[in-house]
Every structure is written in structure tokens, then in C-alpha cells.
Amino acid sequence: MEWVKARFGLRTNVLRPVPDYSLNPLYWLGALTVIAFVLQALTGLLMLIYYVPTVDQAYSSTQFIIQSVPLGWLLETVHLYGAYAMILLALLHLLRGYFLSVQKRPREMMWVIGVIMGLVVLGFGLTGYLLPRTVVSKSATDVSVGMLSFLPIQIGPIITFLIAGDGSSAAELTRFFDLHIVVLPAALFSLLALKLFLFEAHGAAEPVTGAKESRDIPWFPTVYLYFAMIGSVFVAVVFVASALFPVSLAAQFTPQAASNYVPQPEWYFLWMYQVLKFASFEGSGIYYALGGVTILLAGLVLLPFFDRGRARSPRARPLYTTAGVVVVAEIVVLTVWGYFTPGQIISDAAAVEVIGVVALIAALASAFVLRTRSRVQRISSAMKPVRSAFAFPLKNRLTSSVFVVLLCIGSVCFANLVDSGLGTAFNSSVFALNMAGLLVAFYAMARIMKGLSAKYRGSRS
User: Fold this and answer.
1) Which of 289, 404, 422, 431 has the highest local Cβ count within 10 Å?
2) What are phi and psi of 49, to 5 degrees?
3) For the structural domain made of 16-305, what CATH number should be given?
4) Confidence (pTM)
5) Residue 325: CB partners within 8 Å, gap ≥ 6?
6) What is the pLDDT of residues 265-289, one digit of tens each?
């Protein structure tokens, strides 16, 4: 890194040491989002070997991947769940940054770039959803593209042409495919490079209570090991979920099949679609709904230039904190509500009742929590041992390394046992050897955990 810094004439540190308070999983939500993007890129490149982006072959090639390619079903499922994880992690990263005011000076542009990156991530979800051309994905995409027709005449046709082409199914699929694998990745890579540059310049934001006696920790090997640990856990969760709940391909899109299906967008756009189903927003009223969503997004992007106070604690910013809680509660309720009312027009009375009640409950709950400062402090104090425990294994590198080796051995033995149980030919000696390896590894890991726990309690006392 020093060699790169010297040759490229960089003025800021590259992979500089990080403060110890950042060894907290919540500080790494953005990094986990990047891992999800890398996972998406790898699985997507493998799928490109077989996928054919034409109206006639998009569905059949996707079906071929799932049914005929070795582990193709796992590849498709990991790509789908990785996309969900990427969107969810980006959302959690945004919420954490909002409530902890990480957009304060001098990190305003980091916030603006981060929100734009979040919109690019949603673009990945929109464009990738169409590519299999199932009746579900094509119908949902038609709903999303149809909303563009309600944009102002000055920009609506231009945006529609850029996204969907001349309106034909072939042009739409081609545009979505190009956006998904070329334009959006290039945009995300560029924004990521710019944000990493700013992050190296400004570093991690301090806790809202201030950094008391913090010390810098070198990237190699400590921070790298921590990042590898939480990244491996994340990837493992995605793969386990994919293996337990494999994707099932919906029926192929045809006009006849679409006529029997009520179109619904994916969960990350469902709240917006539910708003558009309010009776007042039918017809020309949709302009007001789209205008309100646009104002909300614009306000989110420009938040650092409105919220310019120096206070960062949620309790010191009751107005912004309460507004954030209300918006999050409304989005969650609208999403669930939309899931259970597909295709139904919502009356104005029902809309006002639900929106108003949710806003009132969320505002009262936020006010109650903000006023009970002692309770929040007790919860924060109770979480300190948990945060310390995450960093403790890094202080015992040799023991932790042995634990990781044993974990790998036990995982291989367990996988072999599963394979032998599913296979037609059963070998008793191989089964016994793997069972012995699994038990020995499990026992040794249990002893190491016991020793680390005792040592951790001693260091805490």
C-alpha cells in the first residue's frame, strides 16, 4: 500500500489504521454490501455462460441453468438471495447513518454518494428481475415501467426510451440486460472508488458519545482478519439459506398467463406501489404520489445541507429522529399491507386511517424512547460486553487460528457425512473416519471456546 501511495502520488493514507471502536459489525454494513456485490458479480458471470438475453430464450436458458447445469440451482438461488441481501444491507447502512448523523461535516459528500449508490443498487434489483422473463418478473416490470409514463412530458419519454427502448419486448429485455451487466456495474464501481477515497481521507465516524481513549489498529493483520471473519459469516448465511430454500422458477411469461396473474413488484418497491393504489392517486392523481416520492428522495440526498447542526446524538435531534422513525414505520406497514392486498384499490378513508395511526404510534414511541434516557443508557451499557467480545478473538490470534483450522476440518467431515448419507454407495470405513474427525474437531473447538471464555471473563474482571 505504501508502494501504491508513493507511485501514484496519493496524499492520503491507503488502508490506514482504524480506531478500535470501529470493530463493531454495525460499522461494516457498507463493507458487507460490497461483499454482496462481489458475490453478485461472480455468480452473474458464471450465469452469463449459459444465459441468452433474447425474448425466445431468456426463460429457457434460465430453466436450463437451474435444471441441467451442475449446481446451477444453487447458482441462481445465491444470485437471487445475494441481491436481496445487498439491498437489505444497503438499507440498514442508510438507516444507521441517518440515526447516528454520519453525514455531518466534513462527510456531506460521502452521504450524497452513498445515497446515490443505494439508488443504483435498487436499479440492479429492477433490471435483474426482468431477465428470466417469468410471468411474475415481466408483469412486475411492466408495472414499474408503466409508472414512467406519468413523469413530466419533458423527461418522461426520454427516461422511458433510455430504460425500455422503443417499447417492444425485445428492446426492453436488451436495455435491461445492458443496464444490469454494464452500465450499473460501471456506475457502482466509480461511485465506490470515490467513496473509498473520501473514506480514506475522513476515516470512520466517531460514536455519537465521542471516542474516549480510542487507539488505532493496523489493517494487516488485525482489521483484515476481523473483516474476513464477518464477511465469511455473511457469505455462509447466504449459501446456507440458498441450500435450504432453493429458488423455484415461476411460469414463463405469456399474455394468457399474465391475464391470470395480479402483478406485484418485488418487496423493495412494494411500499411505493401500495401508495399508488390509494384511490386519490388513481388517474391524474398519480402525479402527486410520484411528486411526493421524488421530494422524499431528494430530501434524503440533500439531508446534510438541511441538518447542519453539530449534535449527532438521536436524543439531541428529536425532530429528525422522530421523522426517521415515522418514515421507517410507514414503509414497513405499507410493504406488508401491499403484500396482503394485491391489485386492490385502497379507499381514501382506509389510507388516512392506516397512515395516520401508524404515524401517531411511531411518533409516540419515538418520544417515549427519547425521554427515557436512563433506559437507553442501560441498554448501551449492556451491549458493551457484546461489542468487546467481537474483537476479543483477534487479541488471541494463535488460538483463534487453530479454532478456524478445526472449523474447516469439521465442516469438511460434516459435508462428507451428508454426501455419504445421500449417495447410493455407502462406505462404512469412510463414514467412520469422517464421524471421528467431526467429533474430534467439535470436542477440540469446545475446549478452545471454554478457554477463550474463561480468559475473556478474566480480562473483563
Assistant:
1) 289
2) -60, -30
3) 1.20.810.10
4) 0.80
5) 362, 363, 365, 366
6) 889 989 988 998 899 888 777 888 8
